[in-house]
Amino acid sequence: MRSPGACARRSMMWTEFIGNRAAVEHLQQLAATAGRERHAQRTLVLAGPEGVGKTTLAVLFGLALNCQAPPAPGEICGACASCRQAAPVASLPELIAAAQAYRTAEVKTSARQQAPLRVALHPAIHLFPPDGDFLTMAQARAIIHQDEIQPDSGQSWTLIVPDFDRARWATQAALLKTLEEPSPGVVILLLARNPGALLPTVRSRALELRLAPVPHAELVAALVARGQNAQTAELMARLAPGGPGRALTLDLPGYQQIRSEALQLLRLGVAGDSLATVFRLSESVRASKEKFESLLEILYSVLQDIVYLQAEFPNRVGNVDCLPELRSLAQRLAPARVREVVEGLDRIQAAAQRNSFRPLALASWTLGLTAEGS
Ligand SMILES: [Zn+2]
């Protein structure tokens, strides 16, 4: 509560964005001139690693374009009728899940082509997240169609396409004409971890802004400024290196609880513990696909730390709050074995995507740790 207007504002502000000031300022300038310049760039690529804030920045840009009372050109007031209609970016996973659930319940399989996955974070800010693994042709058609609809006066359609680098080339190509020159009042933001996977003809039509991982000290300071104590902020920044989006949404107690199960799995495997124990543990993740995926992700992060310790890069370790245990595992697992264990996890992850029986896969993986390893 530093500014007197703080209690009146509802939406996110530019100043809340962590890191990458140059990109932020560039977008503010674009937002300031977008209304006035007929030839303003309206197709943008935001490129950068996962969790760095690409979606947040794209939404901020949309809010700035639609703000009805910007304190200065390109700014966001946070309190006007438009700003107050924005849902928080943090609610995006729930909104996507709700959109998917609605479609599954209400739309017949044969008609899903006509119900492409899209989510509105604001009446004028629409996202087209990967439907399955990537943007579908039906979603591309929805973007083209949206581009053809004239927004209400004073509104700017902001169409955001996360993971556009995962879209098939045919889908990217289908959008070329729209990306070449979006209609007046329409801005298209393509988000990409790997802009090299975009069609060259897409990149040549867009203004590309690169977001870099946020330096550790800057991330820690930002977390402290948001009320975390120094020790927790340090740990969160370690667990989400360079990624403020991931750090801010990290549920630390939840993470630590699942990690203790991940460590137990590794311990059981290395110690050659009984089949029954392994089954009991892996049964515990049976209930929830989400938890199972978290467990896999955390196993990867723990194994990554073990590799860092074996390679003598201890200052790269993320899970610093369980360092003694990691050191012990690093001593007991041969480096070649760690590689095989990671490959085994890759297979489990692939199987999980095909909805194979998950607990059994984990149990056999854990047993495999000892079978050949000791
Ligand atoms: Zn506003």
Number of domains: 3
Shape: globular
Number of helices: 16
Helix- and strand-based class?
A: alpha/beta
Kindly report the CATH topology of the largest domain: Rossmann fold
Give the bound compounds. Answer: zinc ion
- Span from first to last CA? 58 Å
Biggest beta sheet attributes: 6 strands, mixed
Named CATH architecture of the largest domain: 3-Layer(aba) Sandwich
Q: What is the percent of helical residues?
A: 40-55%
Provide the succession of SSEs.
Answer: HEHHEEHEHHEHEHHHHHHHHH
| Whole-number mean pLDDT | 87
For the largest beta sheet, what order do the strands appear in spatially?
2-3-4-5-1-6
Query: Which CATH top level class of the largest domain fits?
Result: Alpha Beta
Describe this structure in words.
The protein contains 16 helices and 6 strands. By secondary structure, it is an alpha/beta fold. Mean pLDDT is 87; it is low at 1-9. Helix 15 packs antiparallel against helix 16 (358-371). Strand 2 and strand 3 form a beta hairpin. The protein has a 6-stranded mixed sheet, sandwiched between helices. The protein has 3 domains: 14-212, Rossmann fold (3-Layer(aba) Sandwich); 216-250; 251-371, Zinc Finger, Delta Prime, domain 3 (Up-down Bundle). Bound molecules: zinc ion. The site of zinc ion (ZN) has 8 residues, from loops. The site of zinc ion has 8 residues, from loops.
